[in-house]
């Protein structure tokens, strides 16, 4: 099992003011706009009375995790993204030396949505996971500034520039582990995985660098989630989301609904 960086069970529980291991933990996987499905999953948690006490997230899942951990409701999250539904609203094109786009614009948006600055200030202990590009290892943060760590977790190589934090380059956590069950498996009794990246097997080739990079990334993450799926007690994986585009932000409400339906099907069986 990969090791967390600067994380201990005492530290995580300390943030929540707890003296025992939490019952429910949730690992939110990556998937770009498919990650809107996580909002539907959170809505289902509310319906079934599930109150997670520890969270982890990768890429789009890290966004869902920190917003949820900060106390935003599913309705609040939808409102955040409903105002801007174009890829260009969140990114800026850059001279392609280390990545085609920068996420600075999205970073400013995320900062405006969050009521706190640091991970240790979140209401629910949250681990943001990324890939240490220099060392080739998975890392998890449960303290430090939220925005740069989430941007690192979301930075798909080639498409986005790596993020430099304390002299180290970080990229999307999905490069090595796209479902961050590993980060909190030992810190909860029941672990629920929310995997929003099932592989689309009806893919049609497009002669586009962005599309080729995106498809390559999906093929890579399909394999690397298997070990983390085994760590979960319950898995929510909406197959219908596979047809959604990674950067199609107009799919917000449809993907939320897909995530909600898939979560309800799972939760109805286990609760």
Describe the structure using short key phrases:
eight-stranded mixed beta sheet; alpha/beta; 271 residues
Low-confidence stretches: none
Distance between the termini: 29 Å
Rg over alpha carbons: 17 Å
Strand fraction band? 15-25%
Give the beta-strand count. Answer: 11
Q: Can you describe this structure?
A:
Strand 5 and strand 6 form a beta hairpin. The chain is globular, with a radius of gyration of 17 Å. The chain has helices spanning 9-16, 37-48, 60-69, 74-82, 87-90, 104-113, 146-154, 209-224, 226-229, 252-270, and strands at 24-28, 54-58, 92-93, 99-102, 126-132, 137-141, 158-160, 163-165, 168-172, 190-194, 234-236. The mean pLDDT is 86. The protein is 37% helix and 17% strand.
Topology:
Blueprint: H1 9-16, E1 24-28, H2 37-48, E2 54-58, H3 60-69, H4 74-82, H5 87-90, E3 92-93, E4 99-102, H6 104-113, E5 126-132, E6 137-141, H7 146-154, E7 158-160, E8 163-165, E9 168-172, E10 190-194, H8 209-224, H9 226-229, E11 234-236, H10 252-270
Parallel strand pairs: 1-2, 1-10, 2-5, 4-7, 10-11
Antiparallel strand pairs: 3-4, 5-6, 5-9, 8-9
How would you summarize this macromolecular structure in one to three sentences?
The chain has helices spanning 9-16, 37-48, 60-69, 74-82, 87-90, 104-113, 146-154, 209-224, 226-229, 252-270, and strands at 24-28, 54-58, 92-93, 99-102, 126-132, 137-141, 158-160, 163-165, 168-172, 190-194, 234-236. With 271 residues, it is an alpha/beta fold.
């Amino acid at each position: 099992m990969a090791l967390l960086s600067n994380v201990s069970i005492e530290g995580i529980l300390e943030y929540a003011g707890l003296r025992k291991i939490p019952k429910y933990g949730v690992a939110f996987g990556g998937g770009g706009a498919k990650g809107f499905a996580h909002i539907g999953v959170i809505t289902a948690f509310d319906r079934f009375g599930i109150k997670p006490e520890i969270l982890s997230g990768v890429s789009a899942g890290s966004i869902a995790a920190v917003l949820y951990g900060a106390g935003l409701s599913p309705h609040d999250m939808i409102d955040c993204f409903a105002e801007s539904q174009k890829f260009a609203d969140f990114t800026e094109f850059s001279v392609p030396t280390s990545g085609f786009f920068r996420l600075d614009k999205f970073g400013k948006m995320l900062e405006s949505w969050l009521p706190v600055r640091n991970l240790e200030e979140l209401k629910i202990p949250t681990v943001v996971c990324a890939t240490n590009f220099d060392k080739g290892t998975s890392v998890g943060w449960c303290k430090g500034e939220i925005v740069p760590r989430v941007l690192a977790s979301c930075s798909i190589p080639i498409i986005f520039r790596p993020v430099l934090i304390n002299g180290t380059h970080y990229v999307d956590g999905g490069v090595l582990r796209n479902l961050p069950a590993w980060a909190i498996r030992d810190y909860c009794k029941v672990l629920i995985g929310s995997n929003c990246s099932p592989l689309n097997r009806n893919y049609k080739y497009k002669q586009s660098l962005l599309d080729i990079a995106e498809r390559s990334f999906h093929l890579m993450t399909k394999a690397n989630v298997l070990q983390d799926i085994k760590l979960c007690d319950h898995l929510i994986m909406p197959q219908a989301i596979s047809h959604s585009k990674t950067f199609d932000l107009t799919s917000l409400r449809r993907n939320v609904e897909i995530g909600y339906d898939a979560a309800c099907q799972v939760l109805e069986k286990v609760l």
